[in-house]
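A brief tutorial aside. Many learners find it easier to grasp structure tokens once they have seen a single protein encoded end to end. The record that follows does exactly this for ATP synthase subunit delta. Read the sequence first, then the structure, and try to relate runs of similar tokens to stretches of the chain.
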Amino acid sequence: MAELTTLARPYAKAVFAEAQEKNALDAWSADLATLAAFAADADMAKVLVHPSLTAAQQAQALTDVCGDKLNDAAKNLVAVLAENKRLPLLPEIAALFEELKAQLQNTVDVVVTSAYELTSDQADKLAQALKAKLNCDVRLSSEVDESLVGGAIIRAGDLVIDGSVTGKLSKLAEAMKS
């Protein structure tokens, strides 16, 4: 994983710099999301690393699948990645680009996994509390995992807050073993 990030980072930074210069962060976000989705597809992934295909053929296959969804700059990125045999990095490049964009816009994506569906009032209160704690705008999404029994797990970037009943029971069991 770290190796993929290391390889993808220069491309993500270059695309981000280009997007900033052209004031096209949202357009690049959309293009990279499209490319990442297709590149992550199992069948397309085989095409992107197929040894009998030239770099141009691999790039053409990916851009053909994307159709009219890509602008010329994104198609150029695909060509450069194909030439350097880096097309499988597209999902990682897209993720790094989104991280850079979030840092610039001072936002964080927060995923709340709870045992039950959050009400809109609970989600609003949680978003406000996280906004105060993290000093940035919060984009909150929620998931339901009934195996948590109760409570919630909050993930915001590298920060993980485990307030689930399952997590607390695990900590208690660990403390009793030592």
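Self-check: Strands lie at 107-114, 137-144, 152-156, 159-162. If you spotted this yourself, you are ready for the next section.
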